[in-house]
Every structure is written in C-alpha cells, then in structure tokens.
Amino acid sequence: MATALKNLSDYSSDHFIDISDKRFGLVVAEWNREITDTLAQGAYDTLIKHGAKEENIFRNTVPGSFELTLGAQLLAQHEQIDAVICLGVVIKGETKHDDYICHAVASGITNVGLKYNKPVIFGLVTTNTLEQAWDRAGGKHGNKGVEGAVAAIHMLSF
Ligand SMILES: Nc1c(NC[C@H](O)[C@H](O)[C@H](O)CO)[nH]c(=O)[nH]c1=O
Ligand SMILES: CC(=O)[C@@H](O)COP(=O)(O)O
Questions:
Q1: Is residue 17 helix, strand or coil?
Q2: Which of 130, 144, 155 is nearest to 24 (CA)?
Q3: Which of 13, 87, 103, 116 could form a disulfide with 39 if both were Cys (CB 3.0 to 4.6 A apart)?
Q4: Which residues bind (2S)-2-hydroxy-3-oxobutyl phosphate (predicted)?
Q5: Strand, helix or coil at 25?
Q6: Quick check: CB of 90 below 6 Å from ligand 2?
Q7: Residue 70 · residue 62 · CB < 8 Å
C-alpha cells in the first residue's frame, strides 16, 4: 500500500505493552540533517507518549544512511537495549548510488535484528525528491519516525 494511502502517523496503540522499563536506541543519519532530526523527534515523542523514560532512549548519529547498519549493531549488541530504530533520508541523485545505499541498509539492518533477536526498525525515507521526503517527515503523509517508534513498540509487544 502506498504511503499516500496510509498516513505514517496513524496507528492503534490498543495492543501496546508497558514500555516504561524498555530501552531504545535511535540511530540517526546526518545526511539531510534537518529532515532526519524531524524523524528522530517524531520517534522520540512517540516513545515518550507511550510510556518510555527519557533516560532509556539512547540517540547516536552516523554520517549517512549507509552507516545505519553498523550503528544499529553497535547498539543492538548490548543486552540492555531492547529495540533499535534506524532513521535516515536517501534522496535519488543522478546515479544509482541511492539504490546501493537503500538495498544495503535494508538487508543490513534486517540481519542485525535477526542476529540479536530484537526489533531493528527500518526508518529510512527513500524518495525521488526533497519534497517527497518532507511529506514523510511530518508533512501530508505523516512522520516516518512515528511509524518507526510504533513498529518498535509493536514488536516488543509480540
Ligand atoms: N546521498 C545520501 C547519502 N550518502 C552518504 C552515504 O550514506 C554514506 O555515508 C557514504 O557513502 C559513506 O559511506 N546518505 C544519506 O543518508 N542520504 C543521501 O541522500
Ligand atoms: C543518494 C546519494 O548518495 C546521492 O546524494 C548521490 O547523488 P548522485 O547519484 O548524483 O551522485
């Protein structure tokens, strides 16, 4: 279903568990920093809204989305971390570079989650234009950071 048909910030919290003792890693790419900061704020606010403690949310930055995988692993390897949310924005350029990044990150963070048996959430905005990216960072299609936090809480409620 296209994002245009499902707002990223619409969700049900009926099945959520108590997350007051859960520890979350946020890994945020610095590329397109203004947008990734907005995604991170959306994720942070959603975790707090649903009971996470400020002191249990650990935010790290990485240079770009390609480094999200290693950033996720460096957090997920710690027993104290219950879930990791990866946030980045990749906007298509003149070459296929964006494809290589997106495929590497999708595959990489999937493997980290499977390796450490904990939610590692794919919060990557992958768009053709800057406008489309802003539409998914608090714009008309909601906030992908909110979606990432909801996915993390949902998986912890599994
Ligand atoms: N073009 C974008 C990048 N490129 C940088 C890579 O992610 C990586 O940091 C570099 O190749 C060094 O390993 N990153 C984004 O997050 N978004 C982009 O649009
Ligand atoms: C997605 C990217 O890495 C992008 O900025 C690279 O741009 P280009 O393909 O024009 O080199």
A1: coil
A2: 155
A3: 87
A4: 94-95, 136
A5: strand
A6: yes
A7: yes
Q: How far is CA 139 from CA 22, 28, 33, 55, 56, in A?
A: 29, 19, 16, 28, 28
Q: Quick check: pTM over 0.95?
A: yes
| Residue 33 Cα to ligand 2 middle (Å) | 15
Cα–Cα distance between 144 and 112 in angstroms, integer?
A: 20
Encode pLDDT of 136-147 as tens digits: 999 999 999 999
What is 23-121's CATH number?
Answer: 3.40.50.960
What are the structural domain ranges in the chain?
Answer: 23-121
ipTM over the 0.90 cut-off: yes
CA angle in degrees (0–180, nearest 5) for 65-9-21: 75
CB atoms within 10 A of CB 64: 16
Residues acting as catalytic residues: 97
